[in-house]
Amino acid sequence: MTSSKHLDRQARLGLISRRRFLKTTAAAGIVTAGAGTFAIPAFGTNSAPTPKRGGHFRLGLSRGSTTDGLDPAKYADVFMQSVGFAIHNYLTELTEDGDLVGELAENWEPAPDASRWVFRIRKGVTFHDGKPMTSADVVASFNHHRGEQSQSAAKGIVDPIESIETDGSHTVIFNLTAPNADFPAVTSDYHMAILPAKDGGVDYESGNGCGGYILERLEPGVEAVVTRNPSYWKSDRAWFDKVTFLAITDAAARTNALRTGQIDAMDRVDLKTVNLLKMDPNLMVNSVDSDQIYYFPMNTQAAPFSDNNVRLALKHAIDREDLVTRVLKGYGRVGNDHPIGGSYRYFADLPQRHYDPDKARHYLKKAGHDSLSVDLSTSSAVFTGAVDAAVLFKEHAAKAGININVRREPADGYWDNVWMKRPWSMSYSSPRVTEDWFFSQYYSADAAWNDTNWQNERFNTLLVQARAELDSDKRVQMYAEMQRLIHDQGGAVAPAFSAYVSAARNNVGHGKIAVNRDMDGNRIAERWWFKG
Amino acid sequence: MDKLLMTVAKRLGLGLFTLLVISLVIFLAVDMLPGDIATEILGQMATPEAVAAIRAELGLNLPIHERYLDWLGGLLQGDLGQSLATDRPVISLIDDRLMNTLYLAGLAALISVPLALGLGVLAALYRNTLVDRVVSVSSLAAISMPEFFIAYVLILFISVQLGWVPSLSKVDVDQSWLERLQLMILPAITLTFVTCAHMMRMTRATLINLLSSPYIEMARLKGLGPWRIIVRHTLPNAWAPIVNVVVMNIAYLITGVVVVEVVFVYPGLGQLMVDSVAKRDLPVVQAASLIFAATYILFNLIADVVSIVSNPKLLHPK
User: Fold this and answer.
1) Chain A residues whose beta carbon lies within 8 Å of the beta carbon of residue B41
2) CB-based contact (8 Å) between B83 and chain A?
3) ipTM here
4) Total-model pTM
5) Which of A24, B117, B267, B310 has the most CB atoms less than 10 A away?
């Protein structure tokens, strides 16, 4: 999937038809689920050329750190996430097509109101040390993130779980505090690895898991080495004999290592030099159209952003196309001031907002201003090119009589001192598996990262109702209305979705690349292979 | 000789005191940085409860003086503590990294010191000739370019275009001595570029200074050849300032090579320290900074001892 404008458009068309497809299948699935059990096929079909077993795959990743560790509750970035998906399995898996399928869970069914979920656990799966995986391990793994003393970054995800019960050695029952039709999706999150239970807790230190690869060694900030699990229960996954994950922070160093053949694939290509990389006949650049959003959150409770007219003025004062062309070098697509992109099930195709300085002036006048001067805090910590994006916005907004004063903040401590502290800053967010997940984390009134401090009653009511709703058609309506509310009244200027751009040598094979997270949904070790 | 030992002992005592002060300064400085290990580990995903739980377990909610004394107490018993981020003993994080750093510094010193001294002598001998100018200008040009630029240029030509050595210098213990040498050669050359000029200029200046003194004039009048004058009569008196610059550069090779480590992905100590500062992993920061500080203190001491031995007059300051 090399990217060009033409191909992008085709991919987007593909996305749209897939979304329609998903909507219908999801509806059918839920209806069946309401009535009883619905079985999930073991795996999505792989339409790509036949994979081949063997070889030593060396992967250069950008975000390895000397402070990395094996505790899934604290996986920090793409490095440990990718290692995690190599050595561990999860209850569910999000496929490259965006479908939720069972991994260690064979199937699941909700109680009628979706506040109780019964998961049947796959039989005959063992951990690397030969211990059989049972429901007790699943319970211990989820409890690892729960409770008062939890140090887990996923605490917010498991908070809605009231209690977990087992029914025999291969059934786990989750009782939720409130109905949630999307609950199975959260079990595919990278934190929720199934670990072996040990002494009332879990053993994460050894790296023992059910995954396709066995951890040989982890040298934080340097490398992780894994070898194939000979008794892996999936016969059509984990093709390499051995995988080395190398921490290569410097983009130029990663690029050089790939060009000289010292690594086989890398993440986060430097967009400034991607055209040079494309000229190398031994390499391929993979750009996937993700729903990772770049946005400018305003505190909607602080002046002048408390006036929706000001927010609308700013939303009209940015030239999205120009931003995508100049900051993202075309590796992305325009956003529409709400965080839900085309790969979500309930994406609402609202009319696209465009750059319109006159409209911006109009809203400014409605708010009672002739001109406006606001501070925008930014930093290189947000994403590559974040400062450029802020300056570009300043240029665009000037034509609408808005003076944006760009405040460059230090990268160190940005998420602590600036984001959610200053009235207007910049941020980004990876896509979530479900709309509900994203909204609950960023837009509901009491959300931990309600970075726009948005308090919209209608939205909050809808969010709770939609979560409990099992009828797919009704959900489509509800989520569309929520997206419209954010689009029209929300506190974020959300101008662009960025693509995940990686590169690999030509002898590396892969199927369709997932859009949900970087490096094929972090599952590159499990899904890719060497061509013959 | 007793006096020399006394001086060394005094300097070692002072060095230990300096280390103590440095450890305190580092502790306070890292504490003043925004956030702590809990917020750094959890990042954007941090919820207040999880942050509080991590702080409680690591004892970060204790007052700063208690934490410092705690750490100091451990240190006095030879315990560098546990890394806050990975739970592993600091010593196990550091040992391989430190050895790698010392290897690289050693190799770079092995190339750059003789080269710099040789060029310095050459430039002094043929001062104001073409040789002098070429040596001076090229070494100044080398030091004026940032390390990463030199590194990238070397990688581009030697690794990417010619394919002689790999661009990643990822060494590990399983490799043979020869393999390691091959991997380390590019970073070592980069460091040579960076440090050579300094030492070469000092050698040249000191020698030129001495060459104009009366006793050299005398030696020349006796009919001695230029090399003999340099080696037998000038260098013994030039050692003190030259050694000072040389050890300062070697200390730099050990402590200041973070950029080179990043570009070549060399698993040295510098990267570990930078990462640990970013993540506020205090025990690791403390251990690494103490090693770096001790390096400077020790090398300074060595420089002084060499100066004194080469010029006993320094033992009896007037």
Assistant:
1) 67, 74, 76, 153
2) yes
3) 0.85
4) 0.86
5) B267
